[in-house]
Design goal:
Layout (H helix, E strand, L loop, with lengths): L2 E5 L3 H12 L3 E6 L13 E2 L4 E2 H13 L4 E5 L3 E4 L3 E4 L4 E3 L2 E4 L4 E2 L16 E3 H10 L12 E8 L15 H15 L4 E6 L9 H10 L4 E4 L2 E6 L5 E7 L4 E7 L1 E6 L1 E2 L3 H8 L27 E3 L9 H20 L2
Parallel strand pairs: 1-2, 1-9, 2-5, 9-20, 11-18, 12-13, 12-18, 13-14
Antiparallel strand pairs: 3-4, 6-7, 7-8, 10-19, 15-16, 16-17
The protein binds flavin-adenine dinucleotide and iron/sulfur cluster (SF4).
The site of flavin-adenine dinucleotide has 39 residues, from helix 1, strand 2, helix 3 and helix 7.
Length: about 325
């Protein structure tokens, strides 16, 4: 029986593994965290349908449970990857017939943008923190009480030369709209402001969600970037921005500031490109062989990609790539 190692047990890696198992291939998943699921373990409801993230994860987990040809190694990290062998951080070497890299992305560290006060001022949180608060049913201010006015800032750690993140993270505009709607559902009387550079609603149902946010929920959208945040004597935050549509400077007091953090390439990708001869893009994401005909294939025979390891992607795209990568692996194995 052929044996494939899938590195990364996020939604893309899990889907890829389940499809390989279904096709009669033995699979080992290597996951550095203690549990499978990747980032979506921490998300609440998924745009654009507001499906609970847990529901999607449980369905994919269920497909994995039914096979005895699956080994899962959690709490260990792959350091070197070839089509014949994967080396773990412990030094252990695992033999295989092909490998799939599904190591996803890293959340941008909002502390790097010091001007927004993350980790310094109370009630400055990230979009990832807000997902956790939704999950815990505990969207509260640090000093207790509920927010009456919230600002959501787009493009934090994306499209930003100063922090060497030139790419658009693609999913954060729609996440900002989804989170604004969820906040309005919790606090109908609150005012929610989205500060954006451009609104990028690239997927089916996204534009409709953006319209609904305005018409049904009265979410406000301001074109402009917040330049500075400071605390006020009454535990609020004062933000300074420029409304770039009117050209006017703007000052606003808010109770909470949500930073929509970007999807950053894993630092580990540099090692993969140096030591395993896998090509990397200037953004730091891995380079697929071809954008049209080989987007789950790497430049090294027998090594494949799935999910956000090659670019920012949503959950649906990541799952589809898991399936596509499995099919490409099978095709490759059949030719051996
Ligand atoms: C704030 C936020 C909200 C989002 N909300 C939505 C939404 O509502 N709807 C939607 O469609 N999309 C959403 N997304 C996008 C979604 O998170 C991604 O599409 C999805 O997580 C990509 O899955 P993945 O498996 O490719 O990567 P990941 O989720 O990053 O999983 C990769 C896995 O690989 C593991 N790993 C990494 N390196 C190694 C290594 N060297 N060895 C072993 N294991 C390793 C990691 O621990 C992780 O478990 C959101 C993104 C963000 C940032
Ligand atoms: S998706 Fe929107 S918020 Fe995210 S980087 Fe692109 S333009 Fe900015």
């Amino acid at each position: 029986m052929k044996h494939v190692i899938v590195i990364g047990g996020g939604i893309a890696g899990m889907q890829c593994a389940s499809e390989l198992l279904r096709q009669g291939v033995a699979v080992t998943i290597i996951e550095k965290e203690q549990d499978l699921g990747g980032k979506i373990r921490n998300w609440h409801k998924l745009f654009p349908t507001f499906t609970p993230a847990d529901e999607v994860l449980t369905a994919v987990r269920h497909k994995l449970k039914i096979s005895s040809n699956l080994k899962v190694r959690t709490g260990c990290q792959a350091t070197s990857i070839t089509a014949k062998k994967v080396t773990l951080s412990t030094g252990e070497e695992l033999k295989c017939d092909a490998a799939v890299i599904a190591t996803g992305f890293t959340l941008f560290d909002a502390k790097i943008k010091e001007e927004y006060g993350y980790g310094i001022y109370d009630n400055v949180i990230t979009s990832a923190d807000l997902e956790q608060m939704f999950n815990e049913g505990n969207v509260r201010l640090a000093q207790g009480g509920t927010p009456r006015r919230v600002a959501i800032l787009h493009c934090v750690g994306s499209r930003d030369e100063k922090v060497c993140q030139r790419h658009c993270s693609k999913v954060c505009c729609v996440t900002g709209v989804k989170q604004a709607i969820e906040l309005k559902q919790l606090f109908p009387k609150a005012d929610i402001f989205n500060f954006y550079m451009d609104i990028r609603m690239f997927g089916p149902g996204y534009e409709e969600m953006y319209r609904e946010a305005q018409t049904a929920y009265n979410v406000h959208f301001v074109r402009g970037r917040i330049s500075e945040v400071s605390p006020t004597f009454d535990n609020r935050l004062q933000i300074k921005a420029e409304d770039t549509l009117t050209g006017r400077p703007l000052k606003m007091g808010v109770d909470m500031l949500v930073l929509l953090i970007g999807m950053k390439a894993n630092a580990h990708n540099t090692l993969l490109s140096k030591e395993c001869q896998l090509q990397m893009q200037s953004s730091g994401f891995m380079q697929p062989k071809d954008s049209f005909l080989g987007n789950v294939t790497s430049n090294v025979g027998g090594v494949f990609y799935a999910g956000a390891v090659t670019a920012p992607k949503n959950v649906g795209e990541s799952i589809n790539e898991g399936t596509a990568a499995a099919h490409s692996v099978i095709e490759w194995l059949e030719k051996r």
